[in-house]
């Protein structure tokens, strides 16, 4: 595995999930694999889980980790080519990424979309420039359009929790209200992964919140949340801003808030959220505090998702014993 930016970078998805579960049972078994290898984690936006879980995963594999919150601690970065830098930006992405290529063996990058210019966000220009100018294998820590480490952790969680062998789980992705415009990366990515997994997958959202078809194609999509929730085994709750009216909040309709009552029409569904979650706005207190919530287990599995991916990258990109 050279890069990890999308499910498309995964050759064998069931094998990667199995690898994560193997790592979870025995987290320190591959401590020698990352010896003298450095992971650089570069954050252009805030993070709690991604930062801590990826750092823990790398440490479990014996790697050194350097973390930089480049938005706060670095020079203001210029990402456009050919500009005369006589404004507020101080350092160009060409040099910044090039320097990182000298210091690290694997690069992790979090770079949220602007939610202003869809073409620019969906071109993944910043992610591609970091890959190109660093020359390093790159793990996406959430990009403009996708959050693959989250989706892998979600798939691991569903695989662990679903015990029936005679049928597939019904998994529902439901939009939830929020007061701020949030990226589409988490739902895009979840859809992309669920469409590759062995599940019945349904997406429900208000009109105007249709996601980019390249990620959702194959899923059943309905504007009727109640219909979608019938017999659900897993409900994945997430807010996102509009893709078609790009970056806009079209409604904050609280009828879309999932409560414990509404779980009555489901198959006692387990409820998932990537976190951070705004209590009472995106998801009810009773669900988060109740027995159906999987949110902490998802967060736990972020470690083993990252560990499986880093292990594959170390195996693919470096010869064991070669410490150069
Ligand atoms: C981000 C998002 O929705 O993409 C990160 C989630 C992992 N969430 C917020 O900005 C609140
Ligand atoms: N779920 C997730 O990626 O959380 P952070 O934004 O805190 O990393």
Outline:
The chain has 324 residues and is α/β, with parallel strands linked by helices. The chain is built from twelve helices and eleven strands.
Determine the structural class based on helices, strands and strand pairing. Answer: alpha/beta
Query: Strand order, biggest sheet?
Result: 9-8-7-10-11
Q: Which overall shape is indicated by the principal axes computed on the Cα atoms?
A: globular
* Helical percentage: 25-40%
Tally of helical segments: 12
Number of strands: 11
Q: Give the SSE string.
A: HEHEHEEHEHHEHEHEHEHEEHH
Low confidence ranges: none
Based on CA atoms alone, the radius of gyration comes out at 20 Å
Strand fraction band? 5-15%
Cα end-to-end separation: 20 Å
Mind summarizing the main beta sheet? Answer: 5 strands, parallel
Average pLDDT score = 97
Bound molecules: N-acetyl-L-norvaline, phosphoric acid mono(formamide)ester
Give a topology summary.
Elements: H1 13-25, E1 38-43, H2 49-60, E2 64-69, H3 70-73, E3 77-78, E4 91-92, H4 93-103, E5 106-110, H5 118-122, H6 125-134, E6 138-140, H7 148-161, E7 170-175, H8 185-194, E8 200-204, H9 213-216, E9 220-222, H10 225-229, E10 234-238, E11 270-272, H11 285-288, H12 295-317
Helix pairs in contact: 1-7, 1-12, 2-12, 4-6, 7-8, 7-12
This protein binds N-acetyl-L-norvaline (AN0) and phosphoric acid mono(formamide)ester (CP).
Phosphoric acid mono(formamide)ester binds near residues 47, 48 and 142.
């Amino acid at each position: 595995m050279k890069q990890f930016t999308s499910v498309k970078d995964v050759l064998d998805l069931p094998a990667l999930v199995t690898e994560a579960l193997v790592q979870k049972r025995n987290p320190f078994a591959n401590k020698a694999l990352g010896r003298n290898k450095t992971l650089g984690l570069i954050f252009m936006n805030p993070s709690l889980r991604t930062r801590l879980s990826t750092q823990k995963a790398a440490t479990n594999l014996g790697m050194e980790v350097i973390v930089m919150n480049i938005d706060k601690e670095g020079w203001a970065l210029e990402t456009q080519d050919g500009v005369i830098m006589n404004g507020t930006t101080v350092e160009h992405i060409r040099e910044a990424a090039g320097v990182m290529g000298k210091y690290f063996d694997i690069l992790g990058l979090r770079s949220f979309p602007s939610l202003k210019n869809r073409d620019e966000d969906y071109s993944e220009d910043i992610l591609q420039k970091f890959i190109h100018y660093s020359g390093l294998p790159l793990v996406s820590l959430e990009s403009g359009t996708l959050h693959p480490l989250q989706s892998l952790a979600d798939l691991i969680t569903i695989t662990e929790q679903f015990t029936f062998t005679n049928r597939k789980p019904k998994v529902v992705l439901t939009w939830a209200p929020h007061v701020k415009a949030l990226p589409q990366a988490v739902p895009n990515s979840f859809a992309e992964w669920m469409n590759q997994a062995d599940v019945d997958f349904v997406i429900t959202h208000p009109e105007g919140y249709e996601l980019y078809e390249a990620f959702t194609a194959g899923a059943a999509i309905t504007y009727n949340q109640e219909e979608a929730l019938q017999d659900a085994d897993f409900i994945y709750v997430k807010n996102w801003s509009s893709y078609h009216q790009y970056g806009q909040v079209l409604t904050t309709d609280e009828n879309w808030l999932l409560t414990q009552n509404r779980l009555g029409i489901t198959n006692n569904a387990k409820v998932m959220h990537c976190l951070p979650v705004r209590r009472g706005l995106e998801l009810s207190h009773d669900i988060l505090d109740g027995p159906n919530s999987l949110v902490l287990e998802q967060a736990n599995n972020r470690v083993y998702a990252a560990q499986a991916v880093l292990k594959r990258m170390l195996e693919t990109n470096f010869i064991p014993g070669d410490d150069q």
